[in-house]
Amino acid sequence: MNKKEVLELKRRFKKEAATFTRVCGCYVDGNHNKVCKFGNTFLNLEEDEFYKYLEIANKALSGTIGNNLLELKFPIEEEEVGGRQHILMALRASKLEDENLLDTFYDLVIDTYDHAGNYLIVLFHDAYDVMSRTSDNNNLDESEEVYEYLICAICPVDLSKPGLGFLEEEHRIGPRVRDWVVGAVDTAFLFPAFNDRSTDIHSTLFYTKNTKEPHSEFMANGLGCGIERTATEQKMAFHSIVRNVLGAEDEHTDDVLLDLQQNLSDMIDEYAETHDDDEDVFLLDKEVVTKLLADSEISEEKAAKIEKSVDEAFGEKPPAAENVIDSKALVQNELRVEKMALEDQVGTLTVQLTEKDEALAERTSQLIEKQEEIDNYIAETKTYDVVLRVKPEKASQIKSQVINGQKCLVIPMGEDEHATINGVNTTV
After folding, report:
1. Which of 61, 124, 159, 302 has the fewest CB atoms within 10 Å distance of its CB?
2. How many CB atoms within 10 Å of residue 342?
3. Tell me: the pLDDT tens digits for 26-70?
4. How far is residue 320 CA from its own chain's centroid?
């Protein structure tokens, strides 16, 4: 069943549209004893009850297809006389009017449903006049078939929380009386399935509230079907395999898992671009797993171990790839990528600043040397009347000579040589 087919049934679970013919139930205590049973024409229920039972029916078909809602197939032997599917067929045909059949079914649930406390088994019978539809999903005013079905819901029954309340008879505040209260649906199923808007007696739609730990024992023993994993279980199994191979304590394992999630998400997006059919599911088969591990740069040795473990875990029923995607992990990976990009930017800026600091330090050193030269020059000019600064090769050419009775320093100058006196360029 797909989402549209589930919603088509649920739209009728309203006061003005509900057509349930009968509702029956059995209250079971923690010792697996049938405490009480009941059966009523649905439309004769008091208003409060009416809405509460509608709420239970709605909850039995709620959640996500493939996670809360699983389609289970009946094996051929269960469709034979005495099989679980055969019992459901008889129960449906009786329209919940046969007390012996109801007792047989209640006993089947009690024997196969593993629950430590009290619980309530609720059964609904309905007949839906399925209208023909045009290609644009508009209803035609003619019936295609009558879809007759059952909904079974199992609800835990727990004591209300202790607390204080007003005791009207005693006219005081005191401990209130604790009642046994029916909780939200824990496990349920729809029989037969409503596939392609038609009756499918070979399948049932199973509901579980707890997607981490569904009542798989009831799938197998209560309904006689093969056990199907929820999307949550598939995700947990896949992540567990990867962690066990890479090393749960390895600090890099979380990063590898995030890379796997991102790469798989990208593969799903690429697949969706070339496949328009919503029912054409992208499966996590061997070929996809191999490519995914290669894209995530996991070593060949570890990749081989992961591939083998995935094949052993899922066998001939590879999960839908989207079932092992963790949306929280994708968000976390986006934050990780942003953080890494920021760290790279900080690193680049640090290198640039370091290079600039080194250049600045070198320039500062040159200025200090220049300042020292200037300071030395000033000191020398204060000590001597004449201070000469010449190139080393020129120093040996300088001679002292008396000219016209004056002591002179004679500096030979070539045609291509220039001189500066007290910072002023001088032509010789």
Report:
1. 159
2. 10
3. 999 999 999 999 999 999 999 999 999 999 999 999 999 999 999
4. 14
C-alpha distances in Å from residue 253, one per residue of 239, 242, 382: 10, 8, 75
- Kindly report the pTM of this predicted structure: 0.74
Give the position of tokens 């100058």. Answer: 413
Bridge-partner residues for 157, per DSSP? 118, 182
8 A C-beta contact, residue 284 and residue 316: no
Nearest C-alpha neighbor of 216 from the set 329, 87, 113: 113
The rounded mean pLDDT for the chain is: 86
Instruction: Please choose, from the candidates 235, 418, 257, 232, the residue with its C-alpha nearest in 3D space to the C-alpha of residue 333.
Output: 257
